[in-house]
Amino acid sequence: MGVSCGAEYGDYFVPKSTRTVKTISQENHQIFINQEDYNYEEEVQLKLMYKAISQLNDIEKALIFMYLEDKDYREIAETLGINEVNARVKMNRIKGKLKKILNP
C-alpha cells in the first residue's frame, strides 16, 4: 500500500492524489556496524541536528528533509508549491535558524 507524499511532508503541501511512495517496515531489519566503523561523535551530532530540526515548523521541516535527501531546489519548490527562488531563500533562513539553535 502506498503512502502519499503529502503525508510525509505535511498534508497541505502536496495533494495526496499527486504522488505516492512505497514504504517498508524497518521493524525486522537489523544493521550491524563494526566497532571500528562506529563513530560516537557523529551519532551525537546527528541526534543534536534532528533535535534542532524538530523545533522547526512543518514547512521548514519538509524543506530541510527534502534538502537532506539531495532534492534540487526545483523539485523542492514544485513539491511545496512555491517558486525556486523562494525555496532557496527559505533554505538559507532555515540554515541560519538551525545554526542559532545549535550554537546559542
Task: Describe this protein's structure.
- Helix content is 55%, strand content 6%.
- The longest helix is centred in the last third of the chain and has 19 residues.
- The N terminus is likely disordered.
- The chain has five helices and two strands.
- It has a two-stranded antiparallel sheet.
- By secondary structure, the protein is mainly alpha-helical.
What's the count of strands?
Answer: 2
Strand content: 5-15%
Give the overall shape, derived from the CA principal axes. Answer: globular
Low-confidence segments: 1-21
Percent helix, as a range, is 40-55%
* Subunit arrangement of the protein: single chain
Q: End-to-end distance, in Å?
A: 43 Å
The largest sheet, given as strand count, sense and whether it forms a barrel, is: 2 strands, antiparallel
Strand order, largest beta sheet: 1-2
Rg from C-alpha positions?
16 Å
Per DSSP, the total helix count is 5
Mean pLDDT: 77
Structural class: mainly alpha
Q: What is the chain-wise order of helices and strands?
A: EHEHHHH
